[in-house]
Each structure stands twice: as structure tokens, then as C-alpha cells.
Amino acid sequence: MVHCERDGVVPVPEDQLPVLLPEKIAITQQGGSPLARMPEFVDVTCPKCGGPAKRETDTMDTFVDSSWYFYRYPDARNATAPFDSAIAKYWFPIDQYIAALSTPSCTSSTRAFGRASCATSALL
Predict the structure, then answer these.
(1) Buried b vs exposed e over 87-108: b needs ≥16 C-beta within 10 Å?
(2) Are 68 and 92 in contact, with CB atoms under 8 Å apart?
(3) Would you say residue 124 has pLDDT above 50?
(4) 3-class SS string, the chain
(5) Between 18 and 93, the higher pLDDT residue
């Protein structure tokens, strides 16, 4: 998505997908997306009007973030992979998850992440 002052939020045209991320990026841990500090990535032309626009840099929903670390939790000391599939298989699926009021959305994302992991053999 790109943000244009004239046209608002405009999708990237299909023929320009996938949007490739820069290969050299400084991870500074200053807060916010490191992509937002890269004008060569952010500053684009609006596909609708041809005017100046800004590329979206917040590409990962917080529930998606929660979903993968949910699987990491049982294997938190793993230094070579996000999680060991044998450990994840032992602990998941779980019967109950207690958290904040947003739990229904989070558990839906977690379930989707789990299904995608199984479908792509990440949890073999």
C-alpha cells in the first residue's frame, strides 16, 4: 500500500508485486520500522495519480507478531531457529489461552499461523 495526499491509501498494482525489501537495512532498534528511515524505499510515486506518495512500512500486524512468538515460548533458548518443531508438536495445540480482551483476535491469528506452519511443513 502507498499513502498519497491526493488519493489516500492506494494499493500497489499487481504487476509491481511482490514489493522487494531492501537488501541492506540498518537495524538500529530506535523504535518504529527501519524501513521508515529509508527514503529510497518509502518515497514512491502514487500508482493512481502519479504524484508523490509514501510506501507503507508497518507491514506486520501485532497479532501476527504474537502468533509466532507464541510458538517460540516453549523453546525460548533456541539460538538456531524460531522454534524446534518437535517441541512445538509436544506443546501444541493447547486447550486454553488466557490473555487480554483482544484474545479472540489473537487466538484466531495464532490458529492461522499454526495451520500455515503445518501446511508448509514448518511443524513436521
Answers:
(1) ebeeebeeeeeeeeeeeeebbe
(2) no
(3) no
(4) CEEECCCEEECCCHHHCCCCCCCCCCCCCCCCCHHHHCHHHHEEECCCCCCEEEECCCCCCHHHHHHHHHHHHHHCCCCCCCCCHHHHHHHCCCCCCCCCCCHHHHHHHHHHHHHHHHHCCCCC
(5) 18
Contacts of 100 (CB under 8 A, 6+ apart): 106
Q: Which three cell numbers stand for residue 42?
A: 518509502
Region 27-48 average pLDDT? 90
Bridge-based pairing state of the strands 43-45 and 2-4: unpaired
Contact between 69 and 78 under an 8 Å Cβ cutoff? The reply is: no
* Residues 100/107, Cβ–Cβ less than 8 Å: no
Q: Which residue has the cell 518504529?
A: 32
Q: Is 107 left (phi over 0), alpha (psi -120 to 50) or beta?
A: alpha
Q: Which three cell numbers stand for residue 5?
A: 495526499
Domain layout of the chain by residue ranges: 2-55, 62-119
